[in-house]
Here is the input.
Amino acid sequence: NIIAVLSKFQQAIAQQEQIIAKTKELKRSLMHRLFTYGLRGEELKETEIGLMPKSWEPMSISDISDKLIGGGTPSTKIPQYWKGNIEWTTSKRLGENIYLYDGEKKISENGLNNSSTNLIPKDNLLISTRVTVGKAVVNKADIAISQDLTGMIINKDRYSSEFIVYQFKIGRIQKIFDEQKRGATIKGITREDLKKIKLGIPDIKEQKEITNMLSNVDKKIQQAETRMQGFQALFKSMLQLLMTGQVRVKD
Here is the structure.
């Protein structure tokens, strides 16, 4: 009957949801382990941001970054500043993904040149320093940023953008952001406080190996999410077809 057919789809959706939840839990555990113990089985040392392998260095954001860049919003009262071909974003676009491929809106050259926004060259970091404090992504396109964000320009020969973004997500770093937040209505962290936050940094080879491990787990999560969305779409279309009599259960 109809209920039996639809329940098969619901079971498939539930199964994918379970896979996603378990894989996310695995990722959290793996991140904690990798950023505490590293990959080389080294002796650990105690630092001001917790345990890390002996060869790793606790380094501040100001040590890691070549430059920290603020942002702004072109005036919405001037239409010529908008609907151009330059990507522009606020912190709203920063979520669980480590990459950001495009902006929330587009601005014009005029908007870029006549406001306090700045263009962050691709493959650097966007860090949320207002509203959703502590989120970070690697921008995969040149993107202008709002005052909610700080652009972090890094030397790619020494540091992996993805490694830094993954480390931003671990509990002990998020706790530092929470402790530094200020403001009555809109919470934020100053650029001076951001500069002082420390991360554990191994050599570039180990950074890339850790990044590869975590990105493989992310791919598994994305595959399960894609399958789940497919089953959800099938469920909706099948429900419509069955309810309108366009498809009979025996078909």
